[in-house]
Design a protein that fits this description.
heterodimer; A: 284 residues; Sufe protein. Chain: A; Arc Repressor Mutant, subunit A; GMP Synthetase, Chain A, domain 3; 3 domains; three-stranded mixed beta sheet; B: alpha/beta; Aspartate Aminotransferase, domain 1; 2 domains; 13 strands; 42% helix; globular
């Protein structure tokens, strides 16, 4: 059984704002029967057409999909359209006291319906990821659920996802036939690499504390994304002076070229942190 | 909250009599049956008795019973053995609707170079034996077809399938985990070479199963290391659990008539009433021959996990073929193989009964489920017309 929070259960058992708004200003629809969940969101704006005065929903889906929809409508009532757009899927999940990771796609669906509703109202291009909603741009990565690279990049970046399993949990991509998982891994490496691309320069002088922070930062942003692309990973075990101890995980663990990978890590850290760094692979 | 338990294809309550039978074998009669002293010897006698009881339920001889840890182990042991017995044969036949214990193994073997044929089912979950006739050839090492489906309860024509398999000289295995205790079996007159059963589906504890292995059928053990089970399954016997399984089989034989009359009657009433009270529903496999205790019922425009959670609020335990309950994102492979329309594949609920269920519990479900489906349809953006029709 899923470990739902009391708040998820409460919003599922007593969902707020169920139904339609007859004269809604904005309507957003995402998902489909075939996908296993779908959400139709109705918004009513104030006379200045700025602020959301009422929000209602209809949802076909599991307990957490209904709870996420209920939470979304509660969160956006009284907000301006721009304030509402700023709500992330993580904030929807947080409002509910968290969702099981496998169910994060329910919060993404809520956020997506809101974006679609507002984009349609404003007459701007749909941020659509769903083939049911007409025109879309970009390459379809996940054919089973009709998800584009643009949508996946956005969710990967916003939620700092770094494994294909996480991308499946947040978007469903790769969750049916699994054929697109290699492409998802490439997208993760690209997106997480882009995030790390702000110009890095080796600092002149470092306190011990700063050095440790920087080592962690480089491993997170420069090194691990590259390993993820090949299904590998590493964990930082300890830092003793200039000696950095790491343990390889997933495909890297026991990989015959892990020695080579360790040298790659060392080279990166020397390049971006300090010349005297040594990297040691340890058990752990 | 007292549970109203209708998930007996997932697992069953251990019968009190079964528990009493096994109880002394933990702290008092804890000897190892292989030991040379009287203390182990008396346990050996009880294990032998248990083997006879299991054999009696199957219409088999005691020496044809090998105790294992579970149905999954029995399935793995049977299929892997057949491939070792016929190293030159590289073809396996199974069905698209098998339990993962068989299906995952076969798909893993396919990655290792075996040719695997997965037989299709029709919209009611039935096999086409002509497809088996066309698929089987001299290269086929083993055919593994489940006796009855765990999700829909659909029963396959196992003896007819076995006759086809025998003609081609392949081995025939059946995963009968859901059938044992519900369908009368007679191995002495059967075409089955190997049959898997599981204790916890028939009111014995979890962690005990058995493999029926026809006398004369060559076998290569999966577990090696000790001489137990006549070298067919190494490892110290799970004595208390084996004794429990024996008792459970004895009871199952005694209750088989009840399963097929009273339990079947309750199941039939449940599905008739639910179909009458809830619009836009369908019985998955309703036109096929089914186990007496199982009904899989699909409701359009609602999602299974949401139904289960609301039933659970009322103390009712059922299960679903929907995606969201399993953590997977697609409806069950069984419903997809049957081509159940996607409008209702996500809304399938399985009720599986046992002899411990009562008419009063059936009444509770008949009372509680219709408003749950109605409520979820009110939340759903689809199927407004169903509600409109309902008035």
């Amino acid at each position: 059984m899923w470990d739902y929070t009391d708040k998820v259960k409460e919003h599922f058992l007593n969902p707020r704002n169920v139904g339609e708004i007859e004269d809604a200003d904005a309507v957003g629809e995402v998902g489909s029967l075939a996908c296993g969940d779908a959400l139709k969101l109705f918004l009513k704006l104030d006379d200045n057409k700025e602020r959301i005065v009422d929000a209602r929903f209809q949802t076909f889906g599991c307990g957490s999909a209904i709870a996420s929809s209920s939470a979304l409508t509660e969160m956006i009532k009284g907000k301006t359209l721009d304030e509402a757009l700023a709500i992330s899927n993580q904030e929807i999940a947080d409002f509910l006291g968290g969702l099981p990771e496998e169910k994060m796609h329910c919060s993404v669906m809520g956020q997506e319906a809101l974006e679609v509703a507002i984009a349609k109202y404003r007459g701007v291009a749909l941020p659509s990821h769903d083939h049911d909603h007409g025109e879309q741009e970009g390459e379809i990565v996940c054919k089973c659920f009709g998800l584009t690279d643009g949508f996946l990049r956005k969710v990967i970046a916003a939620n700092k996802l770094h494994t294909s399993e996480q991308v499946t949990h947040f978007t469903k991509a790769g969750g049916a036939c699994g054929g697109c998982i290699p492409r998802i891994k490439e997208l993760i490496a690209e997106v997480m690499g882009e995030q790390a691309k702000e110009e890095r320069k080796k600092p002149e002088k470092l306190t011990n504390l700063r050095k440790m922070q920087l080592i962690q930062d480089v491993l997170e942003k420069e090194v691990r994304p590259q390993l993820w692309a090949d299904g590998g990973d590493l964990e930082l075990i300890d830092i003793a002076g200039a000696n950095v101890q790491i343990a390889f995980r997933k495909a890297c663990a026991g990989c015959v070229s892990s020695g080579y990978t360790a040298r790659f890590v060392e080279q990166k850290l020397r390049e971006l942190v300090a010349d005297d760094i040594t990297v040691e692979e340890v058990e752990g | 909250m007292k549970e109203i338990y209708f998930d007996n294809n997932a697992t069953t309550k251990v019968d009190e009599a079964v528990f009493e039978e096994m109880r002394p074998y933990f702290t008092e009669l804890y000897g190892n049956p292989s030991s040379m002293h009287f203390f182990g010897g008396q346990v050996q006698k009880k294990v032998d008795e248990s083997r006879k009881r299991v054999a009696a339920l199957l219409g088999a001889s005691p020496e044809e019973i090998v105790f294992t840890a579970c149905g999954t182990e029995s399935d793995n042991a049977a299929i892997r053995s057949a491939l070792e017995v016929f190293p030159e044969k590289r073809h396996i036949i199974t069905t698209r609707v098998e339990h993962p214990a068989v299906l995952t193994l076969c798909r893993n073997l396919a990655k290792r170079g075996y040719r695997v044929t997965e037989l299709n089912v029709d919209g009611e979950g039935r096999l086409d034996l002509d497809e088996l006739r066309r698929a089987i050839d001299e290269d086929t090492a083993i055919v593994s077809i489940m006796y009855a489906n765990n999700e829909t309860g659909v029963v396959f024509p196992i003896e007819e399938a076995g006759a086809i398999v025998k003609e081609k000289g392949a081995l025939f295995h059946t995963d009968a985990v859901q059938a044992v205790g519900k369908i009368p079996l007679d191995m002495a007159a059967s075409t089955i070479d190997m049959l898997s059963l599981s204790g916890h589906k028939l009111h014995a504890p979890k962690g005990i199963g058995a493999l029926y292995l026809r006398k004369g059928v060559p076998f290569r053990p999966f577990m090696v290391g000790g001489h137990q089970e006549k070298n067919r399954r190494a490892g110290t016997e799970a004595t208390a659990s084996i004794i429990a399984l024996g008792k459970a089989c004895e009871l199952a034989a005694r209750h088989m008539e009840d399963e097929n009359s009273r339990v079947r009657g309750m199941r039939d009433r449940l599905e008739l009433e639910l179909m009458r009270l809830i619009p836009a529903g369908r019985i998955n496999g309703g036109a096929a021959e089914r186990l007496p205790n199982t009904v899989s019922i699909a409701f359009e425009y609602v999602e299974g996990e949401a139904i289960l959670l609301l039933l659970s609020e009322k103390g009712i335990c059922a299960s679903s073929g929907s995606a969201c309950t399993s953590g997977s994102l697609e409806p069950s492979h069984v419903l997809r193989a049957m081509g159940v329309p996607f409008t209702c594949a996500h809304g399938s609920i399985r009720f599986s009964l046992s002899r411990f269920n009562s008419d009063a519990e059936i009444d509770t479900i008949i009372r509680e489920l219709p408003p749950i489906i109605r409520r979820l349809r009110e939340i759903s953006p689809f199927g407004r017309e169903i509600l409109a029709q309902q008035g």
